[in-house]
Amino acid sequence: MINFEVGVILPSAGSSERLDTTTPKQYCKILGKPLFLYALEEFDRIPWIKSMVLVADSVERARGLLDECGSVGRKVAVVQGETSRHRSIRAGLLALQKSEPTTRVVVVHDAVRPMVPAGLLEQLVLAAERCGAAGATRPLVSTIVASTGPEGLLDHCLDRSTHISSETPQAFRLDTLCAAYSKCSEHDLDHGTECLQLALAYAGVRAQLIEGPPDLWKVTYKRDIYAAIGCLRENKCRVCIVAPEECEVADMLMEHLAPKVSVLQRVVGLGEATEGHFNAAVFFHRHNIAQGNGLLDPERPSTVVHVFDHDAPSSAGADGMWQVSVQEMHRGARHREELYGKEGKSVAVVHWVTAGREGRLVRLVSALLLLSAEDDEEDADVFSGQTLFV
User: Fold this and answer.
1) How many C-beta neighbours within 10 Å does residue 321 have?
2) What is the CB-side half-sphere exposure of residue 138 using CA atoms within 13 A?
3) Residue 82 in contact with residue 91, Cβ under 8 Å?
4) Among candidates 236, 265, 235, which has minimal Cα distance to 253?
5) What whole-number distance in Å separates Cα of residue 251 and Cα of residue 223?
6) Structure pTM?
7) Alpha-carbon distance 57 to 12, whole Å?
């Protein structure tokens, strides 16, 4: 259990030369938000994180984006970055030490690493409090080689089985990291990149290394932007499927969505679901039209898809639900859009009218849900209020 103060430093002052774009990668829009904001939001959700320092290339630009998005709490300070990674981290450390002197452990995490696994973070913080420093690692994918001279001839190879890749987040006792930066050389500050090495060389602390999940990669090249879009879309999409117990197409949708979303639950009755936990819901209707607004996160945009099964044995009930014209169906969908829109929700209505099209229905509903994860994009609610037929 973490019962001491923890702060976070997020270096975000790089020029992104390897991205080959005029916009620094930390400001690249991903699903409608600047990249650096994702890491900040992840830390902001963790209750034992008491303060954050964003080290930016432009304080005015970063602060303006934070104010514009409005999704991160007040515990974020923005300070001016410097000419190197270590100098920027030191600037953040000095700001944190001054504003939050009772901080026990400080986490260093690259702002362009949008995924912050909460379980790993807790392990690192506890290990740092115990050992002085801790860092996340991943197995090496490629073999590391060294070359000699301007000819670029092979000198030697490292044994991949005895080396691992250092990632962030990393965690340090505040006094350990302060000691390391107060004693390190100007050469370290200008050319070094590894905080764990500074803690070893200048504070005598051997960091605890903890293997993390594959999500610890950072955005470096343009292709990483597309990987980030896919990972973040999956991470943002939390889906509840409400359907009768015997509903084969709902089972197919579950199987199709399982590898694509972060949370997926299938329920028969609304009381079985975790209220307010989802940002997307699918209702398969045979009798009554369930609303289920309580399933959805009230603080964030959400999407609802209503699927009406016209071939279900009980669908032509006493109310004659399906004995209506296409115009009336669409009018009903527009009415639902007005109702959901008041709560910041999008809604689409799908009429399943042709037997044997289960696969197409599953792909259509899946596409609507994954599009909903782009809740800050202009196209995110493009289908809201529409009537679709399969």
Assistant:
1) 17
2) 13
3) yes
4) 265
5) 34
6) 0.72
7) 7
For 338-372, letters b (16+ CB in 10 Å) and e give: eebeeeebbbbbbbbeeeeebeebbebbbebbbbb
Residue 244, preceding peptide bond in cis (omega within 30° of 0): no
Are 184 and 161 in contact by the 8 Å Cβ rule? The answer is no
Token representation of residue 229: 């879009």
Residue linked to tokens 């699918």: 282
Contact 390, 353 (CB under 8 A): yes
- Residue 80 and residue 55: Cα distance in Å, rounded? 6
pLDDT score recorded for residue 375: 47
Asked whether the predicted pLDDT for residue 114 surpasses 60, the reply is yes
Q: Over the range 166-186, which residues count as b (16 or more CB within 10 Å of their CB) and which as e?
A: bbbbbbbbbebbbbbbeebee
Instruction: Indicate the pairing of strand 33-34 with strand 29-30.
Output: antiparallel
Classified as helix, coil or strand, 291 is coil
Query: Where is 208: in which H helix or E strand?
Result: strand 208-211
Contacts of 44 (CB under 8 A, 6+ apart): 52, 71, 72, 73, 75, 76
Can you name the residues that pair with 76 across neighbouring β-strands?
52
Alpha-carbon dihedral sign for residues 107, 10, 52, 277? negative
Residues 158-174 pLDDT 10s: 998 899 999 999 999 99
